[in-house]
Design a protein that fits this description.
The chain is of the alpha/beta class and 240 residues long. Helix content is 33%, strand content 19%.
Length: 240
């Protein structure tokens, strides 16, 4: 790995959350949610800087307590409408101005994916390097039994229709094309691509498959309950 390549981890963690209040710092297995992502980034030993981008003094305090840097607060992307990519772009600009240096590789780690670990980050980053770094690499997981090819739309009048029509009628599940669902766990791009495209969904972006258990993206109470069950099950199995 080239030591001259500067790598920054950016953890977007806005203070407001309507579906799950205080989502980014809510308790998960005895620690604030965001701490799991900070610790995974630190344990990977990949990054020159681990930055939390937030508008919240409380999130700043907690994040710094777990070893992340929060040298500034958000200015432009603290609303309900800015995307995570926009928040990361702002944090990249703020970081480069603050530290007076440029970062070659940008890794976005969402704080509401606490089961993703340092090994997942290292594995995906190594794949990013092998791919030639000419496109973004976004984590995703297989839909499994929740296959969208069998999805039905529920219309306003209560009628239903197949989302894909009759295209996949008669297909066995094992014969359907492979689908991956993006998750906020790990998104990687070069600085140049991210700035030019203004999104991680750059030209010819790719998805990197991770286990659905590691991909759990917590946005509401049902997601949190699922993450609790998965974490306890995984750790119970590891202890045996």
């Amino acid at each position: 790995m080239d030591d001259m390549v500067k790598k920054i981890a950016i953890i977007p963690a806005r203070g407001g959350s309507k579906r799950l209040p205080n989502k980014n710092i809510i308790d998960f297995m005895g620690k604030p949610m965001i701490s799991w992502t900070i610790e995974a980034a630190r344990q990977s030993k990949l990054f020159d800087k681990i930055i939390v981008s937030t508008d919240s003094i409380e999130i700043k305090r907690i994040s710094e307590g777990f070893g992340a840097e929060v040298p500034f607060l958000r200015e432009k992307t603290a609303d309900d409408y800015s995307s995570a990519s926009q928040a990361t772009l702002e944090a990249l600009e703020q970081s480069e101005n603050y530290y007076s240096e440029k970062f070659n590789h940008v890794i976005q780690l969402m704080p509401n994916c606490p089961i993703r670990n340092f090994e997942n980050i290292i594995e995906q980053y190594n794949c990013f390097l092998l791919n030639g770094q000419n496109t973004s690499l976004i984590s995703g997981f297989s839909y499994g039994m929740f296959n969208p090819f069998w999805a039905h739309l529920i219309n306003d009048d209560g009628t239903t229709e197949k989302l894909f029509g009759n295209k996949f009628d008669g297909f066995r599940s094992q014969d359907l094309p492979k689908l991956l669902c993006p998750t906020g766990a790990i998104w990687i791009s070069t600085r140049e691509n991210l700035i030019n495209e203004q999104t991680f969904y750059s030209n010819n972006y790719k998805l990197f498959e991770i286990a659905w258990q590691k991909a759990i993206d917590i946005d509401d109470i049902s997601d949190l309950n699922l993450a609790n069950v998965v974490y306890n099950l995984e750790n119970k199995l590891e202890r045996k």
